[in-house]
Amino acid sequence: MKVAAIEHPRSRQEELGQFLTATPVADFMASMFGPLPRVVRLLDAGAGAGSLTAAFVSRLCGGNEGGRAIEATLYELDLDILDALSATMRECQRVCAESDIHFTFTIHSADFIQEMSARLAGDLFGTAPPAFDAAIANPPYRKISTDSAARRSLHSVGVETSNLYTGFIALIQRLLVPGGQLVGITPRSFCNGPYFRPFREDFLNHLELRRLHVFESRQAAFRDDSVLQENIIFHAVKGRNQPREIIISSSSGEPGDEITETVFPFTEIVPPHDDGKFIHIPSTASHASAKQTMDGLSSSLASLGVTVSTGRVVDFRLKDALRKKPERGTVPLLYPCHFNGGTVHWPKLEARKPNAILDNDETRPWLVPSGVYLLTKRFTSKEERRRLVACLFDPDQVKAKWIGFENHLNYFHANGHGLERSLAVGLYAFLNSTVVDQYFRRFSGHTQVNATDLRTLTYPDVLPTN
Ligand SMILES: C[S@@+](CC[C@H](N)C(=O)[O-])C[C@H]1O[C@@H](n2cnc3c(N)ncnc32)[C@H](O)[C@@H]1O
User: Fold this and answer.
1) CA of 382 to the centre of ligand 1 (A)
2) In this predicted model, what pLDDT tens digit does every residue of 55-92 receive, in sequence order?
3) Domains (ranges, CATH) in the chain?
4) Which atom in ligand 1 lies closest to the alpha carbon of residue 46?
5) What are 297-342's pLDDT values in tens digits?
6) Atom 13, ligand 1: residue with shortest CA distance
7) Taking a C-beta distance cutoff of 8 angstroms, is the pair 356, 326 a contact?
8) Ligand 1 — pocket residues by CB below 6 A?
9) Secondary structure string (H, E, C) spanning 327-352
């Protein structure tokens, strides 16, 4: 759909926080909405020339969903852009009519912050705040000083924030009906830092964050305006139950480029015990390049003559054979708590876990002959920097004929025996690399690494020695 063009001097643009959304980005934003009611009350606050509403309309018209209605409400302060906005809305009406969608619009040439704050605070007698099923927004970005009218208006409805864009989002959130959806493009700055903490709290208490999209290039979304700003797009739904999982996607921002998507547990993006309520956005670009690197490797564990198994000692089944301290007739028993950086620290008498297991006819089938083994943790805590934690078991440091590996770890071996030392060291370096860690984060949103995951990885070749 055609969106009317508009030219402004740069200084005026900055005063209004006016940076218009390019059509491909607007279309992408519109594609993020989930199912909508038959009659959609749509809010476009800070509408500019109307490109976001136009994209929303194109999305619904493209869905062959005739027999529905869109009631658009648009707020725009800049008088010079109003003609362009009206022209775009008339074009929306024409396009909708062709798709059997009833489109109506109301343009308010007013200050969204002042008007909505007053209506929400009940200051304008007889004018209750409107309610919306959907909102699409690229709000203006500008710092608002403590003594500004905008700051005072926002304060009157309990919104404490120092930027126009967060003020807009906080008000839009209040105007959505339960289940109402918001797709917004904003600077990324609200995701961290102490200044935005009250805003984040307000946002996360009332909006369920369903999806985040990051642009890899700072300039991508607003190429024409050469804005240097890191932007994100989010899709959120009015409600109080954050989802278990959230989609994080990224793209370079070039038209038609590839979009990488990864699903993360919500608690990884907003850790529940973080008082700062930071919104952590992992870089999906590094996930994509990790995949490329891994795809380039041609060996498998089997071709290296290596097997990975889960530790065989299930401690509650062999309770009577476990010992807190090594003693005559026992051999070392290793748990993840014995991991100490890249090597094993054993015994660990201060740990709650046993350090030894009796070596007898009953336990021997669960033990392995001593040798060089590579160990990985099956479960890592969320606080751990890496998803995959590998360490080397060196028989020169822990002297014994047999060893027990407990069930919470995986061990790499050669047909039930230890590995050649150089191979074990190579695997150790590979498994602890950032590439493997990033690769794991791509597909395993949880913190568990099973033997099967390790078996299906690709591995580097062994260099021939001669
Ligand atoms: C970042 S631009 C985005 C425009 C349009 N939504 C788009 O995506 O192309 C923000 C718009 O908000 C308008 N604006 C700034 N302050 C406003 C206010 N207090 N009330 C209503 N509109 C405002 C600006 O004039 C500008 O057109």
Assistant:
1) 40
2) 999 999 988 776 799 999 999 999 999 999 999 999 99
3) 10-282 (3.40.50.150), 292-455 (3.90.220)
4) 12
5) 999 999 999 999 999 999 999 999 999 999 999 999 999 999 998 9
6) 46
7) yes
8) 16-21, 46-48, 51-52, 75-78, 81, 111-113, 138, 140
9) CCCEEEEECHHHEECCEECCCCCCCC
